[in-house]
Specification:
The chain is mostly helical. It has one domain. The chain is 69% helix and 0% strand. The chain is built from 6 helices and no strands. Helix 1 crosses helix 6.
Length: 161
């Protein structure tokens, strides 16, 4: 059994198939949108009454627990940044659901449309790159994409991860 990967190992591995500048720009738009829409889709799943403590206890908040465990074992610093991003995503979902008019699309429909469009963008970026998406190699890269972007923000501000 090999050594466990560090966060830097994961980020470097992800970065190997993200060298093209257009692909990187697409990822700066598509990856956050995909993450947000997954949160929104999970937020929209009806919660059984036994779990319906309040609107904040839902499948989005519950399903992110293993994601946070994955991040925390790699980098507490990036876990903090991803927590802030998740809180923002939760806020977007809450505000959207609280303020939509009857003629607007439900959250899940809006998220599904944006999710599909963002993935089309991702695949176009990888076509330009000439590389398959990293998650074809390892599904865990789906969780690394947002952390990879967060690492650039951390680097810009001199925050260690």
């Amino acid at each position: 059994m090999g050594e466990a990967r560090t966060m830097q190992d994961w980020l470097d591995g992800y970065g190997e198939s993200h060298q093209n500048s257009l692909n990187k720009k697409i990822h700066w738009i598509a990856v956050p949108l995909i993450f947000l829409t997954i949160v929104g889709l999970l937020w929209s799943v009806p919660v059984p009454e036994v779990l319906a403590i309040n609107e904040w206890v839902n499948f989005a908040t519950l399903m992110l627990i293993p994601v946070f465990i994955f991040y925390a074992r790699l980098s507490l610093s990036l876990t903090f940044g991803m927590t802030l991003w998740c809180v923002f995503c939760f806020g977007v979902c809450y505000v959207y659901e609280s303020s939509i008019e009857s003629s607007a699309l439900p959250l899940w429909q809006t998220c599904l449309i944006v999710f599909v469009l963002a993935w089309i963008g991702q695949f176009y970026g990888h076509k330009v790159e000439g590389q398959k998406p990293s998650f074809f190699e390892d599904l865990q890269y789906l969780m690394i994409g947002p952390a990879w972007l967060m690492s650039f923000i951390y680097d810009k501000f001199g925050i260690k991860y």
